[in-house]
Amino acid sequence: MKWLLAVLLLFSAGSGFAQVAVRDDYGNQIVLQKPAARIVSLSPHLTELLYDVGAGSRLVGAIEFSDFPAEARALPRIGSDAGINLEAVLALRPDLIVAWPNPGSVKAVDRLAALGVPVFRSEPRELDDIARTLERLGVLAGTEARAAREAASFRARAASLERRYAGRERVRVFYQVWDRPLLTVNGQHVISKVMRLCGGDNVFAALPVIAPEIDREAVLKADPDVIVASGAGGERPAWLDAWKAFPGVRAARHGQLYSIPPELIQRHTPRLLDGAERLCALLDQVRAAR
Fold it and tell me: Phi-psi bin for 233: left (phi > 0), alpha (psi -120 to 50), beta?
């Protein structure tokens, strides 16, 4: 709850409304004279979280791939991770921008902040960061009660999964984000925290980069018990079965090659626990086959 300790409720003299403030994941304090009424989202996971806290009606624009819930698909688009249209953002007259800075968007995010638009930057690394983000977005949008319920529900469900899988035999996991280039995640990524919740160990946890590019020799050397892939969309990526040509990898030799839709494992939203349940069940299959 330390993030909520940064929340200020200060009543401006004669204003008739409450000023609100929170700190984002970068330590920046975001101060609004009243809860945001016009919000632009620069990340699909933040779009989804705003709907979760009951602030969907306050969204006036969103980045591409903001596709959940269904209502989000109708929001005006203001670009993609590879290119934010600053003029389109400013034309929507936002009183709050929520963003996940990455190599493709960080310059645009910083420019919008420099222009004086309040920007909440999200960089979740732990499962509970999702609950904390729900709470802070609720403060900024004036939907604290709904946000508190959603955060409590998320924490209870995560704790239930942790109790259920605590003490189970460890499984060595290679999570494949993409094929060309061959991408994975390190131990700082929230996907690694999901693995740990299920009794899995990320074979590339020690790499220094959060989303490193590796080669097939590294996978052969790591020799994971299971390979889990995401790809794009909800279909099993065709390149996952390419590992069958490498029987030297334990996962390939025993047919332990699985996929989870990326929106259930790569987005920092309550649906991540849907992906966690799938991953936990897959790791149980690996254990049963030993």
Answer: left
Of 187, 166, 165, nearest in space to 175 by CA: 187
Question: Which string of b and e fits 85-99 if b means at least 16 CB within 10 Å?
Answer: eeeebeebebbbbbb
Burial class (CB in 10 A: 0-12, 13-18, 19+), 122: buried
Q: Give the whole-number percent of the chain exceeding pLDDT 70.
A: 94
Decide: residue 146, CB within 10 A, 0-12 exposed, 13-18 middle, 19+ buried: middle
How far apart (Å, rounded) are the C-alpha atoms in residues 187 and 125?
A: 10
pLDDT of residue 93: 98
Residues in the chain: 290
Please state the pTM of the whole predicted model. Answer: 0.91
Tell the residue number behind the tokens 């925290």, with chain if given: 193
Q: Residue 240 in 3-state DSSP?
A: helix
The answer to whether the CB of 269 falls within 8 A of the CB of 45 is yes
Dihedral (CA of 185, 186, 190, 192) sign: positive
Helix 190-197 to helix 272-288 angle, to the nearest 10 degrees? 50
Is pLDDT of 216 > 60? Answer: yes
Residues 120-143: what's their mean pLDDT? 97
Report the distance separating Cα 12 and Cα 19, nearest Å.
7
The mean pLDDT value of the chain amounts to 93
Count the neighbouring beta carbons within 10 Å of the beta carbon of residue 103.
8
Q: How confident is the model at residue 17 (pLDDT cuts 50, 70, 90)?
A: low
52 membership: H or E segment, kind and range: helix 44-52
